Amino acid sequence: MSKTLLDIKNLHAEIEEEGKAILKGLSLTVKAGEVHAIMGPNGAGKSTLASVVSGKDGYEITEGSIEMDGADILELDPDERAKEGLFLAFQYPVEIPGVSNINFLRTALNEIKEYRGEEQISAKDFMAMVREKSSIVELDPKLASRSVNEGFSGGEKKRNEIFQMAMLEPKVAILDETDSGLDIDALRIVAAGVNKLKNENNAVILITHYQRLLDYIVPDFVHVLADGKIVKTGDKTLALELEEKGYDWLNAEA
Ligand SMILES: Nc1ncnc2c1ncn2[C@@H]1O[C@H](COP(=O)(O)OP(=O)(O)O)[C@@H](O)[C@H]1O
Ligand SMILES: [Mg+2]
């Protein structure tokens, strides 16, 4: 039996400022070795789910629980959750002028190691890791030493995001591929990265509007999130069915 890496039970969350309920009893269990796709109409709460799991400010959890690898993470701040092994694409700064990607990642990696009581990585091992991981995600090694995301094209940013994920080796990665603006190249980059990085000990949650992305990454489970809950779960064929019939079909069925 694979180990459960993320266990969300009956999660209710609202926007703090407005007291507006967004997540309304969402449950999701993700085990090691699994890829989960979360689809659903605009405004369903997909990005809110990613934000709440990562611990972003501005949301109040009114009910339910989130456990990562068996430990309650609700009281942890985003930084601590990252050190526990959570990776959220876009959690890391979009652009940091003057700070090279590499220095940024070396600091992040050493903070994670310190948190786990492990030794700091040597410069030599770190550079070897950069070479290995940048080749896995086909990131031009020159980009790795440029300032974080400064002057990167859309595709380069995407590749860099996957490179960050490769370097930090998270237990659970959440990729919120927010709908517009992902061209076919970006889809391929994300897909190739996820396919190369997934293994028996980690899990990926892919939030997407695009059935197309799932032509490249075959998920073990597809969930439909609507009005703050998971309303249907299936295998990869569910994504095709959604593409064909739209989300209204689910309302008709209910
Ligand atoms: N910071 C915020 N302030 C006010 N409303 C928000 C905020 N974030 C999200 N919402 C609202 O929460 C709902 C869910 O949004 P979101 O999680 O972004 O949906 P999705 O990613 O599924 O399209 C929407 O009605 C959206 O308008
Ligand atoms: Mg969204």
Task: Describe the 3D structure.
The chain has 254 residues and is an alpha/beta fold. Helix content is 39%, strand content 30%. The chain is built from 10 helices and 12 strands. It has helices at 46-54, 78-83, 101-115, 123-136, 141-145, 154-168, 184-197, 213-216, 236-245, 248-253, and strands spanning 4-15, 20-31, 35-39, 59-68, 71-72, 86-88, 96-100, 147-148, 172-177, 203-208, 221-226, 229-234. The structure holds adenosine-5'-diphosphate and magnesium ion. Magnesium ion binds next to helix 1.
- Shape estimate: globular
How many structural domains can be distinguished in the coordinates? 1
Largest sheet, order of strands side by side? Answer: 6-9-10-3-11-12
Order of helices and strands: EEEHEEHEEHHHEHEHEHEEHH
Radius of gyration (Å): 18 Å
Per-chain topology:
Blueprint: E1 4-15, E2 20-31, E3 35-39, H1 46-54, E4 59-68, E5 71-72, H2 78-83, E6 86-88, E7 96-100, H3 101-115, H4 123-136, H5 141-145, E8 147-148, H6 154-168, E9 172-177, H7 184-197, E10 203-208, H8 213-216, E11 221-226, E12 229-234, H9 236-245, H10 248-253
Helix pairs in contact: 6-7
The structure holds adenosine-5'-diphosphate and magnesium ion.
Adenosine-5'-diphosphate (ADP) binds near residues 43 and 48.
